[in-house]
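Supplementary Methods, section 5.1.

A reviewer requested that the exact input to the structure prediction be made available. We therefore reproduce it here, unchanged from the version used in the analyses.
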Amino acid sequence: MTAKIAYDEVEVGTELPAQTFPVTRATLVQYAGASGDFNPIHWNEKFAVEVGLPDVIAHGMFTMAEAIRVVTDWAGDPAAVVEYGVRFTKPVIVPNDDQGAEIEVSAKVAAKLDDQQVRVDITAMSAGQKVLGMSRAVVRLA
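The structure derived from this sequence is encoded token-by-token as follows.
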């Protein structure tokens, strides 16, 4: 597979289609099973509160993975992402109700680089707060 977006058709400032990802307690249990990360701050409300958190929080790596989906969906090929990094700035707090939380993700092309690559800056928000900082990906386009 290769990226479906052509380098020559992209400009600095090109906005990628934004997406919103729901997160429930069930989502966190599924992710814990898949990742092997059973830290109780991600599933046990009593423990999370005892260690100073407001409630159960989503796994940082889960949040990071949801955010990059905006880029991989746009590029059309997950392997087009050659570099990705974030800072974890705020947790995604996941209440124990039928609604859970949402991660709202937007992104835009911030720079055109050499070798058919672009830098994409990603913004991830939850409950009105930025949950990832310095979230950037380098993507090799067609």
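The two ends are 10 Å apart (CA to CA). These observations are discussed further in the main text.
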